[in-house]
Structure formats: C-alpha cells, structure tokens
Request: fold
Amino acid sequence: MIDTARIRQEFPILSRQVHGKSLVYLDNAATTQKPRQVIAALTRYYSQYNANIHRGIHALAEEATAAYEAVRVQAAQFLGAASEREIVFTRNATESINLFAYTWGRAHLTAGDQILLTEMEHHANLVPWQLVAKATGATLAFIPLTADGQLELKALDQLLSARTKVVALTHMSNVLGTVNPVAEIARKAHAQGAVVLIDAAQSAPHLPINVQQLGGDVLVLSAHKMLGPTGVGVLWARQALLESMEPFLGGGEMISDVQLTSSTWNEVPWKFEAGTPNISGVIAFGEALAYLQRLGMPEVAAHEQQLTRYAIAQLQQLGHLTIYGPTQPGVARGSAVSFNLDGLHPHDVGTVLDAEGVAVRAGHHCAKPLMRRLGVPATVRASFYLYNTPAEVDRLIAALKIVRAFFNRPSRIHA
Ligand code: PMP
Reply:
C-alpha cells in the first residue's frame, strides 16, 4: 500500500499554494513532480563532485563517472535489460525515438517497405517516422482504434505483412490511458520479421516494465515523467541491434579513434552518447529510479488503478460529459483520464480549474491525429501519480462543479 501522506511530505512542491488554494497537481502525464532525494542529488553533484565524465583522471571526474555509470546499471535492472550496455542515455523519449528512426530507419527502409504505427501515437512517435518515410520512400500505416479507444487488433492481422519492417507503438496512451497489448503485437510483428519499438514514456512511470516480457526490440522513456529531472531519456535496445546501428550524433566520447578524414566508433552504448551528457540529470534520475523501486512498481500501479477507477466513477456521476478511452472496469488502463464537459471548451474548463488550484492539461496533448479521430479539437486531461489522493479527485470534481456554475451563469448565457 502506498502511504500518500508520508510520500507527499517528500515532494516540496506539493505543499505550495496556487491562486490562494492548495495545489492539486493532476498534470502528471506531462511531467511529474520531484521528491527531495532527486533535488538533493542535483545539488550534491554540483556542490561536491561536478566534473566531466569518462575523461578526467582526477578524483572528481572518477566520482562523477562512477555515479553516472551506476545509473546505467540501475536503469538496466529497472527495465529487466540483459545488460547495462543496452542502455543509451538521451535527452528524452523524443530523442530516443529520433535516434532509432534516423539511424536504423535510413539503413534498413526502402521504397515499398511499411512502417506500422497506431492512430493513438504522440507526435514524438509519428513525426520521426514521417521524416524517415520521406527520406526512404517507405510508407506509413496505422492500426485503427475501436470506439472506446483501444487498438483494433483484427486490423493488425490485415496490416502486418512481410513488407512491415518496423512496428512502433505506445505502451500506454497519453490521452486515452489505454494500455496496449504490446507483447502480443510484438509476437505477431516478429513473425513477419519486423522490428518493434515500444514508446514507454507513459507506461514506465506507472507500471512494472520488463523488456523481456514486453518482447520489443527497442523501448524508450523520459526521466521527467517518472520523478526524474528534465533532459534525460533512455533508449533501450538489444545489444546486437545497437551494435548494428550507425551513430546518430558525431563528436567527442562516441569515437574510438579519429583521423582527419575518418573515425571509428566507441563501443555501445557510448557510441550513441556524443558530447557531454546531462551528468547531473542522469545521476538524479538514479535517485528517482531508487525511489520508485523502494515503493515498488506493482504498488504504484495498484494505487493509481484504484485512484483512476474512483476518478472515472466520480466523473461519470457528475454526468453531462464524455470520457475518452476505456472506462469498463475489467479493461487495463493507465491514469490519464481525458474528458470534455458538454458544451464547454476544454481551455475554458482548464482555466477555471487552474483558478481553483487544480492543474490539468487542456489541449491536443501532442496527439493531433488522435484528436481528429475522436472528433474533438482538444480535451481536458487529468493524470494521476503515486502522490495523488482520493481527496484530490474530490477537489477536481468540486472544481468542475464550479466550472459549470461559472459558465451557466444567466449573464453569460444571455450576454
Ligand atoms: N510518447 C508519449 C506517449 C508521451 O506521452 C510523451 C510526452 N508527452 C512523449 C512520447 C515524449 O516525451 P518527451 O517530450 O519527454 O520526449
């Protein structure tokens, strides 16, 4: 069981006021708040052992290198990777996807090949593939959605063929909360010889992740969505796959030898980490991973499931709204809950919620094709994390009642 009262004391920001009200932070799918341990790791690095890594022979450089590389081991353990050599640190999930799409895509895709995505992808898992399709002549295809925001798996069998070279999909939708059956999809994709990339930006913060069980070949995430600092992402890929890939960015660190006109590459994963990385960020990400591991990812998931069920039930009771994504009790879903109140624009709803101290996201959530599929320009999204409580769901519901009262004022209706 997650002890939210104790946990909340470790997140300084959660005790602040917004517009004179205590903050209810429900924008966790955008980014999560940070515990003291993560903030302290940043301060400790800069006040005690700030140095560039891998190059210095002095004590500070050795300490910084050891701390940075220890997080690679930690991340490998967190994800169930076969080796820390399979962990590449990037800036974010977006860069991880771009790295793979660019290097692997340009080397392996040609005209007539198919890149298979889904209709619920974040722009980060759409645009890099559009770029590589344009460069190689490969075509894009999309697994469609059911009315309640799940993948139409029947269509998968028709779409998959020997032409399918890569299947890239989100594990958990940042809009709908849908948890996709990536293991089953990976099995089918592998049967056609395709490579599978799993966008775990939304799932890794919330569910136990084991890359072996998920069965993909590549998995990406962003540290800032799982208690870590901004500016750190992970690209996990099977070592043989990483070794087969050309570098993404060239520069210091990623080389073995450099001549004036040619170079040879460092071993993986360093071949993909050109230049000085986000050393403090990676080290602080280690504290975030340790925090999550101490709580236990199954416990985190159970807490959020309970809270999300409660939030959906309360929203349904409020009525006169549409919830996008699965709401049936038996269907696996994450803690991002998108909805629209009948007749009200999500931005108006978000603005009044903000005035009530409730932080949600209102917009297209970087998933414009999905918005079109849903037939809406935008949604309101409340997304929960391990520190959120049923009392905060109640604050959301109370604030939504204030939204309704505000916009139903006769003066506005008859204005
Ligand atoms: N994929 C999904 C499903 C996401 O929700 C996000 C962030 N909203 C990303 C990728 C991109 O993450 P980042 O902006 O940290 O690169």
User: Anything to note?
Assistant: Residues 297-318 form the longest helix (22 residues). The pocket of 4'-deoxy-4'-aminopyridoxal-5'-phosphate is lined by residues 92-94, 122, 124-125, 170, 174, 199, 201-202, 222, 366 (CB under 6 Å).
